[in-house]
Amino acid sequence: MSRQQRDALDAMLRSAPRSQTPPTPDEQRTGFAAAITRPAPEGVAIRRTVLGGRPTLELEPAEVSGQGRLLYLHGGGYVIGSPDTHAGMVGELARRAGLRTVSVDYRLAPEHPFPAAVDDGLAAYRELLDTGTDPRDLVVAGDSAGGGLSIATLLAAREAGLPQPAAVVVFSPWVDLTLAGESIRAKEGVDPIFIESDLCAYADLYVGEGDRAQPLASPVLADLTGLPPLLVQVGANELLLDDAVRLAGRAGADDVEVTLEIGPGLPHVFQHHYGRLDEADAALERAARFLTARLSAAHPETAS
Q1: Phi and psi (nearest 5°) for 115?
Q2: Nearest to 181 by CA among 208, 200, 159
């Protein structure tokens, strides 16, 4: 990372709101949208549709490779964020991978607490299969809470007897709502975006008095056997570092093919800074290659 890029990144992160007097969920959503939203990149067409009963943003690159489809679940602590806030980053991933993509506007807490988000993720996944998408042509991705939701959705699909997709990619996944990861305390003051009370507040709104250790809320505590090949990307300078590391370890212990990438000096979901940060562009490129490689491997009969 160049000094100029580092200075620009630091300036952007310092502008992110910090916890003082807790804002309302609506205030958080408005602030997050203003800070994060970037339009879909040039050459990626967007269309609004419905999937699994929820509003959905379709993103289609001008150059599409094969029949592959990407289901994306956005981040935001299960409280904020939307397909619109993530259109830029998701569009970049779709463009680089050449994949038709659907980004689902799943229900948010506190209006719709756990397990509403998981129900919506599963409904979207099920509809893709029911409408003719071959699971070998389907991949899943998500960031932060959406990364945890991606894993939870696949666990719910497994329990429902549905086939698994070809691969899953998660950026800075939040997979432990019990907040047991040591980095949540060790990285306090290093993470430029979050402090521990931020995560506590999101968990309170999403799960409330429920059991935060249940597998669909904290999938790092689940048996991950049978899940597809997994790529985990995380920054070294974030509270959720240990969530990512423990997820990769759990997956490996359960005989899941897994790749873990830790970016030195990088913050939470640094991929949002594509076009401004070399590491973000490189990470998205690797994620795109991972997805396309696994889609190709799912069809060995067509490989040259």
Answers
A1: -105, 30
A2: 200
The two tokens of residue 51 are 């999937």
- pLDDT-above-70 percentage for the chain: 92
* Residue among 161, 168, 184, 48 at smallest CA distance from 104: 48
- Other CB atoms within a 10 A radius of the CB of residue 14 amount to 10
CA 56-151-300 angle, 5° bins = 90
Tokens of 35: 């800070």
For the segment 41-90, what is each residue's pLDDT rounded down to a tens digit? 999 999 999 999 999 999 999 999 888 999 999 999 999 999 999 999 99
Instruction: Tell me what the mean pLDDT of segment 23-49 comes to.
Output: 97
Alpha helices in the chain (DSSP H): 3-14, 25-36, 87-97, 116-130, 145-159, 183-186, 196-207, 241-253, 278-297
**Residues making up the chain, counted from first to last:** 304
User: How many helices and strands in the chain, by DSSP H and E?
Assistant: 9, 8
DSSP state of 140: E
Cα separations in angstroms, 237 against 112, 244, 261: 31, 12, 13
Average pLDDT score over residue span 109-119: 98
Which residues have a catalytic role annotated? 144, 238, 268
Angle in degrees, CA 134, 122, 126, rounded to 5: 30
Q: What mean pLDDT do residues 94-123 have?
A: 98
222: DSSP letter = S
Predicted TM-score (pTM) above 0.90: yes
Biggest CA–CA distance in the chain, Å, is 59
What is the structure's pLDDT at 10?
A: 53
**Residues 211, 177 contacting (CB under 8 angstroms):** no
CA distance 24 to 270: 25
Residue (of 99, 177, 145, 108) closest to 269 by Cα position: 145
Nearest in space to 141 (alpha carbons), one of 35, 233, 238: 233
Check residue 300 and give its pLDDT: 83
